[in-house]
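As a warm-up, study this chain.
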Amino acid sequence: MTYRKRLTLLMIIDSLIVISAIYVGQYLLSRAFQLNTFMIITSLSLLLGHHLFAHLFKLYKKAWQYASIRELLEIFRAITLTVIFAAIIQYIFFQDIYFRVLAVTWMLHILLIGGTRFSWRLYRDTFMNPPTDKPNALIIGAGSAGTMVVRQLQRSGEADLHPVAFIDDDVRKHELEILGVPVVGGVSEIQRTVTDFNVENIVIAIPSLSKEEINRIFDECSKTKAKTKILPRIEGLMTGDITVNQFRDVEVEDLLGREPVQLDTGHIADTIAGKSVLVTGAGGSIGSEICRQVCKFKPGKIILLGHGENSIYTIEMELRSLYKDTIDIVTEIADVQDEHKMFEVMAKHEPHVVYHAAAHKHVPLMERNPEEAIKNNVIGTHNTAKAASTYGVNTFVMVSTDKAVNPTSVMGSTKRMAEMLVQHMDSISDTRFVAVRFGNVLGSRGSVIPLFKKQIQAGGPLTVTHPDMVRYFMTIPEASRLVIQAGVLAKGGEIFVLDMGEPVKILDLAKNLIKLSGYSTDEIGIEFTGMRPGEKMYEELLSKDEVHDEQVYPKIYVGKSCDPNVDAVLEMESNFAHMSKEQLRERVLDIAHGRYEKKDNLSAVK
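Now compare it with the structure written out below.
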């Protein structure tokens, strides 16, 4: 029905209700109809007042099939003002007001006008959305978000879930019904409720949940066979703008027991806005995300430097589609091992900030190829740092790893050596050099999550090295934000680390991922393969002599500076080409642990 037809129909219906209500009210009080001047003027004033206030409160523009308490209040206001308007007209013309007749008329207006409007919703809910065989859903959270989710599921014919119960820890809501759906208990009742109501899907509908609370709820959900979904953190929840398509599966990132670090956006904008920024390793998981985060602060120019042309092309096209008219996006295909090229790039672009994310990070591969770890992680970092210092870069931020602390691997040792070089460069340069350490990054190409997902797709089993192995985890965006924040906090020579909460057992991570994928551990299976060369049972973020208890920013710590044995690192750069892989592996571990001193032209064990 068009708006004009709908408006005409509603005005005709309302006019009949208004005219009939006054006469029905009169009849109920006097048991007789009286058509006189008094009743005619009262009828006309009611008719005029109703249409006036109906337009004022937009009663003719409401979608009544979705009517709620708010619409009922609008009807109440419009009718009350209409009756008051009629009473004023009565007094003006007749110096008298028939209160009893107007009171009955007011009640009839409320019943009839409200009834005709809400009958549309009743028809839609009863006949347009008949009961179906949709799978039953348990809603976690009987607050505003959970209520809106249930309302949306009940209204939408396209929704594929049927809400049957609420779970909420607020005992004041227990035994109550919301929109016809009972609140059956707290989180501890999830397992029983899933069984009693034959629930196939669980929807976590509390957008403000902390990571710890999500973990607690998911632990209970994982005891059932129901599939668990979650409502994302979106601003639309605050305005009721919810659609069933916004449900998503719970992801591993949701289960990290720590809230993400918030950026000091004001100071970051002062550091980056309008400036030239260079990102090495810009095609990698961390490097590309650093580029995305940096571009949000509108740098004048961003230089995407990387060795792999395909990955650099991918991030370039992504950024150009978003910032082609606001940011000068430049690409440089270059290897940080090429000293001449790095100096050439710095001279050409003169960046204000350099984020050095280029590195080899795969522990077992670097154990087998220690010379490549040295070339990329040590020499590449030194080349980039020297070029940055020579051409007056303001701040140089190196991306490091928790594996650089008390390293047991070639990769961790070379990253520790790179930290030594960065701290040394800070002591001899006007450029501020800092390093940022964090744990394993969920979703990066080298992380365990993609491997687990592929193994699940293949039917399992998931391979875990040891049942007791634990790791710190963070998301790619959070790691990238930490790198950018460190550049703002940098005074020079620091090693920044994030308060990463409690470490996560790899075995628990594997079990959760199996559950999130809709399987059980019995279906997929978990196989223990033994620790690989260079791996540690647990990781550290700071060694004992680096620990500094004071936070320099919420959830960000800075390690105490230690005197690096940079001479041993420089010797390694000069002589590594003449050494065997086994010698290299032993040498980098000794340097990283400070066990080498200069003797003649080589290094020897103390």
